[in-house]
Sequence to fold (407 residues):
Amino acid sequence: MSARESLFRTRPLAWLVGLALASGLVAILLLVFGEEIAPPASAGPTSYGTSAIGYRGAYELLRASGFPVVRSHDPRARALDAGSVLIVAEPVDAAAGELRSDALRALLHVARTKGCPAIVVLPKWRWQGSPENPAWVADVGRRRDADVAKVLEAMLPADATVTSGISHKADREGRSTWWARYAIEVAAPNLLKPSGELEPMLESGKGILVARLAGRDPAVLVVSDPDLAALLLDLLRQLPGVRSAVFDETIHGYEKRAQLLSWLLTFPALPVTIHLAVLGALAVWIGASRFGSPRRAEAALREGRERFVDTTARAMIGSGGEASSLGRYWSQTLDAIGDALHVPPAAAEARLHRIAALASREKVPEDPVALDREIEIAVRGGAKPERWAALASRIHTFRREMLHAPR
Fold:
């Protein structure tokens, strides 16, 4: 291989390998850290939200404390396992702010089926996003108590009715069933009134800040006010066997179904898709450059005996025995044809004419009488090298057509 060919092959190959490695590294980084690099912009109560009503702070607090926590975009909540807890931070749509009671009921059913406890933070605020930045809120207002009660009702069995109500008066201190006391610094908090469907876990005054739904196993905890989200870490410690937390984001509208094409065309997979497309195009370009444009169709190579005869004839050229070799080859060919076709013994000229008659009858293109004359001329007067090869090839073709052509 020449140096030029070696350079032509190895340089594109090096680029190709380099791009492949870079694409693989980028794919791994984006799939692992994609949401941290470019999280969805949300002003609502999601684990992405950094506004006053967002839960990014609670999410990061759990991570900083060493408690494993992930986000779920799967309606089937496949991230849940026997050692995890489902966290639903306000069952409202992050874009429109509408309550999603049916979606909450479905999520709690999935968690119960998997044997996982759940923590639900009840909604409190209505908001309007800022036109300047979609991650900011421009205006915030309280929800009606009836909306909060409707969410609580969605957590109960279908035939149950809510007997608890909403109150807004709390003491400055909250008392928990795990003997911890908390300062309540929330102005006009949402509290749940005591009722038979709630087992208080954190109380203040005559209201309940955190409760467990009665008769539910695994446990379902209700946090009455989202401004108490900082209690999440302590609540997780009250759930035996829980080793990780799953923040559900499907209820906020961040739902990803198993659609490969849709996933490949959205962040964080989109840059990987672009890398792979460029890599494929480069591979095609290198392949086309390596093999070049198609060569013109050449005449079919003569294979087998024809090629052998041509090679042998050219090898005899210049040896000094071209004439005798050609004459002997022609004589042997006529003898072979005569024996195979049972031509009666006769003088050479008579035998030639009988073979010529057979060739004419079988419609063989070559006239042996004319070919015999050309060979005689070549033998007597000498011929150019190409002429010797051409005559030898014609003798072989005539023999083949006489002896092997279909009859």
The radius of gyration is 46 Å.
